[in-house]
Design a protein that fits this description.
The chain is an alpha+beta fold and 212 residues long. The chain is 32% helix and 31% strand. The strands form two sheets. Strands 2-3-10-5-8-11 form a six-stranded antiparallel β-sheet. Strands 1-4-9-6-7 form a five-stranded antiparallel β-sheet, with no helix packed on it. The relative contact order is 0.16.
Length: 212
């Protein structure tokens, strides 16, 4: 098993928020669940360098400018942009030293989080530009609010909010408005095969043998 590694400079304003979730066994087996959630107004030294954390992370830029290095590529993060990454992979992100980064973010897991991430990752970039009226920061703020006053509703409502958040991220990633984005690779291969062999009589058994 790979060793978790973290280096960071915790440089943010006193009014920033950082909450750590403690999901129950029921949440881990049933729901999408929050591991950490927060909102930072960063200082000039802020950065995080990490790998081998069993978590997914969405970070939304409220203001300022940040930078992300992930999967061998570098990205600049501007207002109304967000990134979605798998924290098992190496990642390094930081604020701009003068145009200080303000972010809302959530670490999460559970449910079908890996499936959502794999579908999102098909676009090739972890960064998306969201609409001016995107609900993404509002959803993260709702997750912050509900974790500041925990009760029996916190876990199921958090799960619902995370699904909403992931749905908006997927729709933003599907910027070419193509329905093929949502079609699994195996199904797409079958569709291509049918197009190429339209003049032949094919049975379901033939397709199963070819694409099993």
């Amino acid at each position: 098993m790979s060793t978790y590694r973290l280096k960071a400079a915790y440089d943010w304003s006193p009014d920033s928020v950082w909450l750590i979730g403690t999901p129950s066994s029921v949440a881990k087996s049933t729901f999408f669940y929050v591991q950490e959630v927060g909102r930072f107004k960063t200082g000039p030294k802020y950065f995080t360098e990490r790998e081998n954390l069993n978590s997914y992370l969405i970070v939304f830029t409220i203001a300022g400018k940040g930078y992300l290095h992930y999967m061998g590529s570098d990205y600049t993060l501007l207002p109304k942009q967000a990134f979605f990454i798998d924290c098992k992979e190496y990642q390094y992100y930081r604020t701009d030293a003068t145009d200080l980064w303000e972010i809302a973010w959530v670490h999460f897991n559970g449910g079908t989080s890996p499936g959502y991430y794999q579908l999102f990752a098909k676009r090739g970039s972890p960064v998306v530009t969201l609409a001016h009226d995107t609900p993404v920061p509002t959803i993260i703020n709702q997750l912050i609010d509900i974790h500041q006053r925990k009760d029996v509703r916190t876990e199921p409502i958090s799960s619902k909010l995370l699904v909403e958040l992931l749905t908006h991220m997927l729709l933003a990633a599907n910027d070419n408005d193509s329905s093929e984005f949502f079609i699994p690779d195996q199904i797409r291969k079958v569709m291509t095969y049918l197009d190429e062999h339209y003049d032949q009589r094919l049975s379901l058994n033939d397709l199963a043998k070819t694409h099993s």
